[in-house]
Amino acid sequence: MNLSQAAAAPSDASIWLRPRGSNQSGMGQFNERVVLQAIRLNGSLAKADLARLTHLSTQTVSLIINRLLEQGLVLKRAPQRGKVGQPSVPMMLNPDGAYFIGIKIGRRSLDLLLIDFHGDVRARRALTYRYPDPQLLFGQIATLQRELLDQLGPLRAARLAGIGVAAPLGLGGWQALLGSAPAQAGQWERLDIRAEIQAVSAVPVVFAKDTMAACVAELVAGRGRSIGSYLYIFVGTFIGGGLVLDSAVHAGLSGNAGALGSMPLQLAPGAGAPPEQMLSTASLFSLEQLYAAASLDETAAYDARAMAQPWLTHTEAWLDDAARAIALAVSNGTCLLDLDEVVLDGSSHPTLLARLLEQTRQALERYSWEGVRQPTLRGGVIGADARAIGAALLPLHANFAPDRELFLKLLHTAAP
């Protein structure tokens, strides 16, 4: 689902249009953002409807619309006739009003998405690799950025307003699991990813943890439009998550709130090695390892082959373990946070994700819920693009949404 599709869905304006506009002087830019958000979330609206939704005067809305028309951020639709008085002219977002690039740097792949002002994906570029080499990756990102902008053409490329980057906070970590060279992993620990991309970009770059960016995408354009508080789980190469409380992403002290991958799967022993973390069982990397042990193509973990033989036998073994591990995390998280719901998404094929969702629901039934309420488990609606889309939404909201405080604690920003 993209932003324009989400906007067509029913929404509660009292939730999504907070805070309201103000008719006081000196509030011009804020009120512009309120009006843009009203159109984004409710579809095309006439000035009278905008005034009603935003609690701004009709005169204020009219002035704002004129400014937004001059800036090329909105367009007039055909007049609606048939009512008493002058025909109303609905206003819509101009999809070419601004553009944003979302970059997802993962442990197995790189994705760049170009989205327009509607939130629709206009173009994409992708690379896959065994392990991300920092010596090569940033040059490749610069090349792919240029390709996306060349596809737009010079006039529209000039309306690029920001770049968002999503990557794991510990991209150089878990060397033993990934089989990465210590020297290469150490380079990631010393790198400032945002600064490296800012150095080859002409617009401001913002950064967020990859699963936090995916959580933002789900909050803005998915289940978060109707759920107030939930635990978000994303099953990628490594499993991770995010936390939404009272319709706002909660990052935590170091940005790791909802870091399910690090959650232990059992009690620590009195001596010896610590218990395994969830990422060793419920990540797609674990499924890759099962395939590799059977001399099968590991990349099938991310496409439809995972649900066909000869991969299916190993997929089913992984599904059983992964579902039980996720159910344990949901049970523990619910006892701590009293969650409304849990949203599960991932980068696997939708058929595999649907099986994981169903088997996790079954695993949840094996727990005692005495003393707490079992949350509803739902599938996410964004899918494999969630991290890159979330990355692109970060600069969109920083530049054009009235509730930019929602994401400020997630971002690192810098001027070009």
TrEMBL record:
Chain ranges of the HTH marR-type domain: 35-77
GO molecular-function term, one example from the UniProt record: DNA-binding transcription factor activity
Pfam families hit by this protein: MarR_2 (PF12802), ROK (PF00480)
InterPro entries in UniProt: ATPase_NBD, HTH_MarR-typ, ROK, WH-like_DNA-bd_sf, WH_DNA-bd_sf
Protein family: Belongs to the ROK (NagC/XylR) family.
PANTHER family: BIFUNCTIONAL UDP-N-ACETYLGLUCOSAMINE 2-EPIMERASE_N-ACETYLMANNOSAMINE KINASE, ROK (REPRESSOR, ORF, KINASE) FAMILY
Protein name: ROK family transcriptional regulator
Highest classification ranks of the organism: Bacteria, Pseudomonadati, Pseudomonadota, Betaproteobacteria, Burkholderiales
